Amino acid sequence: MKIQDLLRKDVMLLDLQATEKTAVIEEMIKSLTEHGYVTDFETFKEGILARESLTSTGLGDGIAMPHSKNAAVKEATVLFAKSNKGVDYESLDGQPTDLFFMIAAPEGANDTHLAALAELSQYLMKDGFADKLRQATSADQVIELFDLASEKLKNLFKHLPMTLLTLSLLLQLVRQVLLTLTWLKKPFKKWLLKWVLELRSKPTVPVVLVTN
What we know:
Mannitol-specific EII, Chain A, 2 domains, 5-stranded mixed sheet, globular, transferase
């Protein structure tokens, strides 16, 4: 399933009105609830805030990906929202956040939310893609940007057996995934998180990922 299949135009918020973290979360959940993708506002909010209590999903560079695998989710959905002013979302880099992707996955949806996180990160690591999203003025433009980027990625992977990614961004995604995987034994999970944080403190170097 492509991220475009999860991005819903009817729930997008291209001019968030909220100015602080909890209010932003509530504004996005309200849209999901009003359009029927989430059946219970408070239940889903509890799931989102529980995840935020582990560590902020504000990844830095103005981007946040709040997410929850939740019994209140009727249909897997990714809500895109943007703030024209920026919000203090307790981001890991301490900077304001203006692009939001709220990922809602049904309780029995395997790892839909993790797959969405991984695919979104792939797009957002492309130079200039986030800035193009910031300039979008309609839901159709947002979808079109993802469609165009998807075609470019297909062509890239077709001609190159390897893709270079930035270590700091890759480790950020690994950290988010580790925090979500509740089945990992606590001591092992704690060691992995410590390792990721230590690597993040080092200078950025390229990592080679082999693709099919």
